[in-house]
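Methods: example folding runs. The two proteins below were folded one after another, and each record is reproduced exactly as written to the output file, sequence line first and structure-token line second.
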Amino acid sequence: VRRPSQDPRSGVLPIATPAAEPPSYRHNFAMLLGDSIAYGLAITFASNTTTLPDLVRRLTDHPVAVGLLSAVTSGAWLLPQLIYARFLASKPRKKPFLVLGTAIGRPTYLILAAALGLGLGLRSPGLALLLLFAVQAVCRGSASLASRMGSSLAG
């Protein structure tokens, strides 16, 4: 005896089961989650409201530089999204751009830390301040790309 759901003439469609996920989905999810947690934790130590303004204040006495840090950070996060959105909306593969954004931005703070650790802030505070603004712009701009791609991949 055939069940009505098995009879193609009955008009009842069999229940669709989701296809098995490729193994890369779990790996990608774990890597994206790990990166997000590690980056979120690390960026709290380079806070735009406490740590970095104090560093700017130690490098220069000019109060405009402290305000400029906030402007550079916000601008580097928001402005590139205008370019990324139009360029990447039609791309079928978004993961390479996510990887590119994280590969560029994450190591930039190491460059700043190495330069400050080697005494750049004491020898040339102006150059250290310029490096800080450049690192902040590159890191936040690339994080902006990674964030947009990560949210796009997540659904």
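Second run, written to the same file directly after the first:
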Amino acid sequence: KLTKEVDFVGGSQPPKSKFIYEPKDGYIRLIQIRDYKSENHVVYIPKASTKKFCESDDIMIGRYGSPVFQILRGIKGAYNVALMKAKPKIKELNKDYLYWFLSNPSIQKYIVGISQRSAGQSGVNKKALEEYDIFLPHSPNKNASSPNLMLSSNG
């Protein structure tokens, strides 16, 4: 199950009144889903106002919006409540492989289908995501990230 191998960590944000629109000492970029498509709405928040940070190689998941369950990466900063970070718990599961796995059409179709039906709202069904089976790379190089790897179930 994904929950055994991956932590899904939700984001946070201060009130909008704390947002500024130019970089400043003591502030950090607040990443929103729309930032992965455009640099037109960049905002910054006091760094001390959050403990939810990501690196540019971290795997971020869009929890809401259209489409739901977007798999994103490439921006460093703090992340808001509409995003969650997929953080591998074990060293055998590297970020490139996890990114490929979460982008795979099988899990995409399953999670998007379930999420759009949950409680009449469009948002990632975190419980369904956590219960999804993950297949780890079966290779002498456990950190291999190619989608062409032979895969084996993790039980």
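Comment on the second run: The chain has a mean pLDDT of 86.
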